[in-house]
Amino acid sequence: MERTEIDGVPVRWKQGPAPLSATLLFGCGARDETFRTIGVTHLIEHLVMSTLPRLHHEHNASVDLHVTEFTATGRPEQIVAFLAAVCDGLRALPLDRLEKEAGVLAAEGGHCTDPTTAALLTQRLGVQGAGLAPWTGPGYDRLTPEQIREYAARWFVAGNAVLLLTGPPPEGLRLPLPAGPRPDHLAPTPVATAEPIWCEHLVPSVGVSLVGDDDAAMALGCQVLSQRLEQIARRTHGLSYEVGGDVVLLGNGQQLVTVTVDAREGQEPQVAALLWEELNRLATEGPTAAELAEECAAAREMIEDPRAVEAYLHRSGFRELLGLPQITPEQRLADFLAVTPEDVRVRFQAALPSAHLVVPCGVTLSLPGLTEGGCPRLPEQPEGRVFHPPMLAKVLAREARGLRLILTDDGVALRDPDGDVHLVRFDEVVGVEEDGVARTVFGRNGCHILVDPDMFRGAERAVRAVDAAVPASLRYRRSELVGLD
User: How many CB atoms lie within 10 A of CB 153?
Assistant: First the structure.
């Protein structure tokens, strides 16, 4: 791989098949937002792409958990013009298109990862960093020009970019991005559990998350687990179609990995049981030598495929932006070949206590070694001012009889119809949605509580307490685009 620099932006290139492909990669993604600014990265990407003229060559842009990329394939002069237009758009964002692009994004309804992985991330990390993945936040139409400018000035800068090319830089290539250093990322800390847990969630499939080492043994083990699940759940039993997952780097050589398995309706318990069984098998027996050899053969095949240049460049750029040491494809294969079945067994044995398994709502599990978890709950109702539903509501709806809103000294709590108590402390509020007289209070722990005088007699006092305690920067009016995303 060759390396140079243009206008302060690192450029990495390696000769690949024609035509020339380019990726302008930025080290920012959904994990770098806050609850109040969810979607700002995607909105900036759309604003930039809206400045481009009609192009007759392949081009695109996307945002995931970690990075944002602008890509194009074509003749050298087309690549030069595309990258110049992207840089121009970032230097002068067309904020006059804010309302239109907000509507487009609400209609698009895209996500930075699959819904089951997203739920696992917020369960492990809270409503921050990569844990923001399943949340819609205030809505694209509640992002202000100031928030957009501030985010772009911090993240979409020369110091946080790298250009990847499948050939030498074409003549005349410039990258006039705004100047700025590479910012630090939020260091996520996973919620620790003493033992593996399972819970229901609004997800379409079964999934599990694990905290483990960021190394070749863990990577190979996850590939073996995915292959086993595809073989057993799909081919042997016909219960599933697809196995997926994602990875979030935690720093200090650790990573959070997810594995997801879809299921035929009504077969979720069986698929969850297969996932849990295979996970335990890897932790107690490890993979076979043949399974590891198969994964190494797949890695070798990819290295020898000339079309793999783009994937290698992308991995190289990703690692540069995240401050990780570079690994050549040959070194990666050598690391894989050095892994033994015992290495994988040890990694999964260490990771197994951290397992969080999630299933769709209405699915109940009874599997050995798994305890039921879920939304954070208090053992008892806290002290504070208690607000009750109106009498008529209690008469008409049995569920309302058990509802209680509690205003404590440092937050708001809700006792739900099942008797579970959920608390959001004011110093852990990530957002407050204002809808007329009502307030929905969102907590970093994943709980959200509706404070509504129409639901609880005298709750105007609780509304005033919320408004006084939560900074104005975290409050917003209900989106007018609700129902479009």
Answer: 12
State whether residue 31 is helix, strand or coil: helix
- Residue 125's nearest CA partner among 302, 296, 248, 276 is 248
Q: Is 433 helix (H, G, I), strand (E, B) or coil?
A: strand
- Owner of token pair 């806290």: 382
- Alpha helices in 162-253, H assignment, sequence order: 216-229
Q: Name the DSSP letter for residue 109.
A: -
Q: What span, in angstroms and rounded, lies between the C-alpha atoms of 342 and 288?
A: 9
| Residue ranges with strand state E in 322-447 | 356-360, 371-372, 385-387, 404-407, 411-415, 421-425, 429-435, 438-443
Q: Is 35 within 8 Å of 52 (Cβ atoms)?
A: no
Closest C-alpha among 63, 359, 121 to residue 248: 121
How much of the chain exceeds pLDDT 90, in percent? 86
Residue-level pLDDT at 400? 64
Q: 395 is written with which tokens?
A: 């008469």
State which H helix or E strand residue 382 sits in.
Answer: none
Confidence (pLDDT) at 396: 46
Average pLDDT across the chain, whole number: 93
Structure tokens at 121: 């991330």
DSSP letters spanning 215-238: SHHHHHHHHHHHHHHIIIIIIIT-
Distance, first Cα to last Cα, the chain: 42
pLDDT digits (tens, 9 = 90+) for 53-90: 999 999 999 999 999 999 999 999 999 999 999 999 99
Query: pLDDT tens digits for 332-351?
Result: 999 999 999 999 999 999 99
- Whether the Cβ atoms of residue 483 and residue 417 lie closer than 8 Å to each other: no
How many angstroms separate the CA atoms of 475 and 429, rounded?
Answer: 10
Considering only CA atoms, give the Rg of the chain.
Answer: 25
